[in-house]
Write a structure and sequence with these properties.
Blueprint lengths: L2 E6 L7 H16 L3 E6 L5 H13 L3 H22 L4 H27 L4 H8 L1 H16 L4 E4 L18 H17 L3 E5 L2 E3 L5 E3 L5 H11 L4 E6 L20 E3 H9 L10 H5 L5 E5 L8 E4 L11 E14 L9 H11 L6 E4 L5 E7 L3 H11 L1 H5 L5 E14 L9 H11 L6 E4 L5 E7 L3 H9 L12
Parallel strand pairs: 1-2, 1-7, 2-4, 3-4, 7-9, 8-10
Antiparallel strand pairs: 5-6, 9-10, 11-13, 11-14, 12-13, 14-16, 15-16
The structure holds adenosine-5'-diphosphate (ADP), aspartic acid and magnesium ion (MG).
Length: 474
């Protein structure tokens, strides 16, 4: 008997029809004798609506958050009516939906009265999406004869209080999942758990960052000793590039943890960048599959990278980023300037996406999300006050409207010529490369280019990942 953790994304649970598909997938697996741990997202669009609701509440736009709340409520009640057979279970779920939505409106009323929200309040609001969907889905499963039971993950995934991007406290999370959830699974229960959501020790809801229910899936897979984590989504698997950018994108039959980690970190929305962390050490295989095309085997993600016969495996890009450059004549040979810059960036609460240093040592540059650029500049310049006064460091320059494009493939490691092919491709497209960095794992190369050339660059590089003759094998 295998234990499978299955995470279903927003589109996969986005409508009554889609939820029926989810129930079928889980029921079939249980019938085959598997133990299934189900982790679900909010219905598609609901988290965005909640984000809007609390923001508009803070601005005093009562009508907006009330009408948003009405829409969310109606969608879940409609799903409950369609998916749960008439009777006590349906009534109880509808009462829970009403109660949760009342709480949501009460919180928004308070935010509106105060004229501001806090990260802690935001997380309480964001958690409603998964708390609503999971209740409807669990009841729909019971209606189909499964012994399904809904859980708020705040009971299991204990996190710090970095609201909106909380970090799990591992020992406690492990002991709760092993101590409180595993016995129920042993009893034959199919748990249906909120993705994305955690809770502090003192009982406040937290969230793991947007798109974080993939990460939740991995956490539950790890501590239930699952034999496999299946990420059910709305595409056939991990593809050679974002299919919305290039229709020629193909599904990769297999890819390594490391490669998929790079893809996710550098912008492939199909997986949250932290997803591989909890399962990597344990070697739990992960599969990305399509809820709407169950005949497709999807992408298998394991430790080993399958060799490929194309120049690269996949291409990703990130927009809305800024390139920050620290320069100065007096920087040469002075130790610690880069270190202090990155610490100052970290202190401003910002993650660096990419770092690149010119060999002259007279400048180095790094990429951060555009909305953080100004804050990082201030933080770094205040750290370098003395050096700037001495004119050893000129300061921090911000270049906006740039993008990071990344090519990924473990085959690049030690293969001469890959970087050359990549750059000559960009050159032939007349795309100007502003900065370059090679991932430490040597399975990716990233570069900064102008945002206006991003799509063109992705399309051109993607040809190197397609094995239909356009790419020349190396
Ligand atoms: P879910 O709600 O199931 O978590 P997401 O919308 O978060 O789904 O992620 C799936 C989407 O990621 C796909 O619909 C696709 O548009 C996008 N995507 C971006 N890059 C890739 C890629 N390399 N492979 C597959 N999908 C990708
Ligand atoms: N519902 C959350 C979001 O939209 C988490 C997720 O779907 O992964 O970000
Ligand atoms: Mg997602």
């Amino acid at each position: 008997m295998s234990t499978l953790t299955m995470k279903f994304g927003g589109t996969s649970v986005g409508s009554p029809d889609a939820i029926n598909g989810v129930v079928r997938i889980v029921a079939e697996s249980v019938q085959q004798g598997n133990r299934v741990v189900v982790v679900v997202s909010a219905m598609a669009g609901v988290t965005d609506m909640l984000v809007t609701a609390v923001r508009e509440a803070a601005l005093g736009n009562r009508w907006v958050y009330l009408s948003t709340a009405q829409k969310i409520r109606d969608r879940h009640i409609e799903a409950a009516n369609l998916l749960i057979p008439p009777g006590a279970d349906r009534n109880a779920v509808i009462a829970e939906i009403e109660a949760l939505m009342e709480q949501h409106v009460e919180i928004c009323n308070a935010v509106s009265m105060l004229g501001e929200s806090t990260p802690r309040i935001n997380d309480a609001v964001f958690s409603f999406g998964e708390r609503l969907s999971s209740r409807v889905i669990a009841a729909a499963m019971r209606g189909h004869g499964l012994r399904a039971q809904q859980f708020d993950a705040s009971q299991f995934v204990i996190t710090n209080d970095h609201f909106t991007s909380a970090v799990p406290i591992w020992e406690e999370t492990e002991s709760r999942i092993r101590g409180q959830l595993l016995p129920l699974i042993d009893d034959g229960i199919t748990p249906v758990i909120t993705g994305f959501v955690g809770g502090t020790r003192s009982g406040h809801f937290t969230t793991l960052g947007r798109g974080g229910s993939d990460y939740s899936g991995a956490i539950f897979a790890a501590y239930t000793d699952s034999d496999e984590l299946v990420i059910w989504t709305d595409v056939d698997g991990v593809m050679t590039t974002d299919p919305r950018v290039d229709k020629r994108a193909r599904v990769l039959p297999s890819i390594s943890y490391q490669e998929v980690g790079e893809l996710a970190f550098y912008g492939a929305k199909v997986l949250h960048p932290k997803t591989v962390q909890p399962i990597l050490k344990r070697g739990i295989p992960m599969r990305v599959r399509n809820t709407f095309n169950t005949a497709h085997p999807g992408t298998l993600i394991t430790k080993v990278a399958e060799p490929i016969n194309t120049v690269i495996k996949a291409v990703t890009s990130i927009k809305n980023v800024s390139l920050l450059t620290v320069s100065g004549q007096g920087m040469m040979g002075v130790p610690g300037i880069a270190g202090r810059t990155f610490l100052a960036t970290a202190h401003s609460g910002t993650s660096i996406l990419m770092i690149s240093q010119a060999s002259s040592e007279q400048n180095f540059c790094f990429v951060v999300p555009q909305e953080r650029a100004q804050m990082v500049k201030q933080s770094v310049e205040s750290e370098m006050k003395a050096e700037i006064a001495r004119q050893d460091v000129d300061g921090v320059d911000i270049l906006n409207d740039v993008a990071v494009v990344t090519v990924v493939g473990a085959g690049m490691r030690g293969t001469p010529g890959v970087a050359g092919r990549v750059f000559s491709t960009l050159g032939s497209q007349r795309v100007n490369v502003i900065a370059i960095a090679q991932g430490a794992s040597e399975c990716s190369i990233s570069f900064v280019i102008s945002e206006s050339e991003r799509e063109q660059a992705v399309l051109a590089l993607h040809a190197l990942a397609l094995d239909d003759g356009e790419a020349i094998p190396i």
